[in-house]
Every structure is written in C-alpha cells, then in structure tokens.
Amino acid sequence: MKMHVKTTKNLKVYQDKINNWCYKMAPLKILPPTVKLLSLFIALFSFSASACEIFVLDCGQGNAVVAKYNTETMVFDAGRTAYAGFVKYDDDRHSDSITERKYPIVLNSDANLLSLLVDQEKFTLKTSNDNKKGYKQEFEDSFRKIVFNKGKNTLRTVFVSHPDVDHYKLITEFKLNPNLFVLGGGYDLYGPAFIEYLKGKKILVDSKVNYPTEGALVRYTGDPRFVEYGCFTEIEGEDTPKVDILSVNASRTGDKNKDSMIVKVTQKYSMLITGDAEKETWADAVKNSQPLLQSDILLIPHHGSMTNDSTSLDVLNIVKPKVCLITAGFQYNHPTFDVIDLLLKYYGATQYRTSPHYITFYEGPTRKSLITNAPIFTTIDSGVLKVDISSNDLKITAARELTPTPNTFLDEEGSLLSLDIADDRSFVNYETLKGLDENRTPLKNSSYFGNDVFSVQRGKKESYYYQFGETYLKMKLIAEDDGEDPIEWDGTILDWHLEHPEAYHMTLKYLGVIREVKDKV
C-alpha cells in the first residue's frame, strides 16, 4: 500500500512518538499487544512512495540539471561560462519576486493560445551590481543543497552531454565526486584541467582517436559500471525512476555538439535532457531509440539556439512534449526568436496550456519579451524550474515570477498600498475592458498608480488592470500596515487615501528592495 508523504506527515509524527515510548518501555517488558498493533498499523499506512524531483538550475549561460530520488542524486551537465556573464544575468533578475509558483499543465485545454509581445522594461529596472561574490556563493549554496543529502555525498552519476565548458565547468569548481562519470564526446576534447580532475575516477567515455565509434550507445549502456551506477537504486514496492541514453557520439567524427548525449529519465512522467543536440543527434536517436523519444518534458537543446536544426517541428512532433524548458543566459542572445516561434506554433496546434507567464527571447541582437499560456519556461525568467515526475499531476514549480512594477503609496506610519496580480491572472483586450465599465470608458489613473493602470468602475466597486501593449492584466489592491501581514484591500484607492491622508507616491524597485519616495499625494 502506498500513500503520498504529504498525507502521512501527522501519522509519521505519532508513529515516532509511539516507537520512542515502546523503546523506553522495552526494558520493563511492558509492551501491550494493542500498542504493538497500533504501531504496526501506523507504519503500514505511513508508507509513502518516494518522489523523483528534477531541478533545472538557474545557472545563467550554461546547463545544469539535477534529479533526486530518495537520498540519491544524479547530475546531467553542470556548467556555465564566465561568472561575469552570470552576474550580469543575475543582476537583471535578482530579488524579483521569489514565489515558488506552481504552473499546472492542462492537457486538454479549450483556452486559445496567448502570445502577447510586451515591454520588458515594465518588468526589469536597472540597478547597480555590487555583490558578485554574494551571487556566486548563493548559487553554490543552493546547488549543494539540492545535490547533496544533508551534506553527505549521495551523488551516483554525473552525465556530461559533450565537451563544451558551459556544460561541465561546475564539476571542477564544486569538486563533484560521483561513483561514475558518463561523458559524451571524445575524451581528448575536454579541457586539460577537467581531464586532470578525472584522473583516478571512474569514467565511461570514448577516446577521440577511436572515431568512428559505431556501437557507442551499446557500449555505454552495456558497460558494467553503467549498469551499476547509471540508474537509481531499486526500492522494493516502488516505481524506481529509469535512466536511458538515447544517443551518444552520433556524428562519428568528434563534432562536439552533434555528439551530445540525449538522456531520458522516466517515472510517472518523463523528461528528455538534450545537451547541445543537433540534427544529426536527433537522427541518430530516431534510428536507435525512436520508441523511447516520446517524453512529457523536453529540455530544449542548445539553450534555445536554432544552430543546425537543434530544434525542429519534426522533432517536436516525435517527442510530443507537454512542457518545454530552456536554460539560457544573456551572453549569446539565447533563446532565439526562431525557436520560440517554432514552439508557439507547436503549442498552437496542441491543447497543452498553463497559467500566463513571462518569457524573454532575442530577435537578432534585440531582446524581446512576451506573455504566454503555452507551457514554455526559461531559467532567465522563472529561475530554478522544478518538476516532480512521480506526481499524479504534471506541473512546473518556478522559483521566480516576474511581476509588473506599478507605483505604490506609503504613509509616514509605514502603511503601504500596492497593486499585485489578481489570483485569476486574467488578461482582457481593450473592448472587453471597456465593456466591463459602467461608463464604457476605462479611466487612466495617472495620479495614482501611473499611466499604465486602468480602473474599471461598477457602482462603488473598482477593479484595476495593468496595460501590456494591446492586452490588460487584472490586478488587486494590497494593503500592508507596519508589523502586520498584507491583506487584499476591499475598498477603492480613494477609501485608502481617506484613512492615510499623508501618503507618499513612490516607485518600488525589485519589489521593495529599493524604495524611491517621490511626490506627496
């Protein structure tokens, strides 16, 4: 019998108390049979299947993915390029709303595809970068917390898709020491420092001089070391996650990107982890492993680049992903418009939808942004992306949610009035907005929350909408008194001002990290 761990937390507490009491009473030999039976009953009903969580880490320009099952972890790529690029990236997004927001993936939605270009400056405000060391340490701390179990090394395997430094640099920086390294590409193509680090460690890799490497996939998956460490330890009665290599060293020539590994992790849901796979890599995977290619979650290859057909509609139609994730930073203008446009066309022909959210991409050198309900997520915008592939429901948990930055009010006593995204996160066009207002003409609140906020009047009730180009996002008023929890303000802006006549008009940068007091209202 299996029960989810969240439903058994209290039972586990009671079981521990009973077991502790039984332990204390054992020397006195006074263990009533009813207590023994009760403890056994609780133990049986407290049994829970272990979650398999996959983390796509927010490492800027690079790739780093971690899978956790029970106390064991596996790493699939662990790298990024120079910290300068990472810090610039982090500087743009650091201290935005940390939400751990869950995005459920609706599999048969009747919602139309939402794809709206927006002004990215309404989300991102420039600030000075004065904490490079702090950002670097914060990332390392979070990485270690995910990879290691309470400080213990339970790292079974590190897979490196191919010999590009933004896929393996963190291994030496963080001194990862798994039971086995499984490396795509030729051994001699990795950097000298990395090769030196691997000396004396168990590695599974082809040498560059051995190309062409026919049968590389068979040799990798059939190697006794892979059989021992390339999978999670099986637990009796549980659906242990399975790890499959679907392609490795596809080019037979030593081309780094084409030789990327494609790895699949499967439990109730499945995920493809693709490195910098290109057209030849996908062709090799189709030839050798097509029945396994269909997956619920696809990590888009090459950080959302279209280089040599890294992503194509043919591949998407074979994989049939319900969710697409992208790891990227700003260093090389990833992800590209071509890939995002392709993904939107794919989701436009499917019924997979999620809550509206914000994604960034590049059209040539120009950085652009859009709001969409297509299940496409980037680490640029959403931070660490987490998915529990053992859960009954498919959903993505985002560590960060970017929000609009309308003006806010502050009085001399520390009371705040601000706007936040409404719970239903609904978007409407101008005609719908006009129809919601009893006067049929939404009024701009330039004297309150700025020119981008519209109020809709119905009797004594006002609703507020934030403008993004041709669409409007519903907002709600949040009131906060010093020392008290924020609450949704049930009245109007005017009602709040009557209670706080000395309020100041101010702009919140990074949702309260920097406050800029402006005009007195």
Describe this structure in words.
With 521 residues, the chain is of the alpha+beta class. The protein has 14 helices and 28 strands. The strands form four sheets. Strands 19, 20, 21, 22, 23, 24, 25, 26, 27 and 28 form a ten-stranded antiparallel sheet that branches. A nine-stranded mixed sheet has the order 4-18-17-1-2-3-6-7-8. Strands 9-10-11-12-13-16 form a six-stranded mixed sheet. Helix 9 links the parallel strand 11 and strand 12. Helix 1 runs antiparallel to helix 2 (33-46). The termini are far apart.
Average pLDDT across residues? 80
Indicate the overall shape.
Answer: elongated
Number of strands: 28
Weakly predicted, low-confidence segments: 1-48, 125-130, 507-521
Q: Helix- and strand-based class?
A: alpha+beta
Number of helices: 14
Beta-strand content estimate: 25-35%
Assembly annotation:
single chain
What profile does the largest beta sheet have?
10 strands, antiparallel
Note the topology.
Elements: H1 9-25, H2 33-46, E1 52-56, E2 62-69, E3 72-80, H3 83-93, E4 98-104, E5 115-118, H4 132-147, E6 155-160, H5 169-173, E7 180-186, H6 192-198, E8 203-206, H7 216-222, H8 224-229, E9 242-247, E10 262-266, E11 270-273, H9 279-293, E12 297-299, H10 313-319, E13 323-326, H11 337-348, E14 357-363, E15 366-372, E16 376-378, H12 379-382, E17 385-388, E18 395-400, E19 407-410, E20 416-421, E21 427-428, H13 430-436, E22 443-444, E23 453-458, E24 461-468, E25 471-480, E26 487-488, H14 493-499, E27 504-509, E28 514-520
Parallel strand pairs: 3-6, 6-7, 7-8, 11-12, 12-13, 13-16
Antiparallel strand pairs: 1-2, 1-17, 2-3, 4-18, 5-15, 9-10, 10-11, 14-15, 17-18, 19-20, 19-27, 20-25, 21-25, 22-23, 23-24, 24-25, 25-26, 27-28
Helix pairs in contact: 1-2
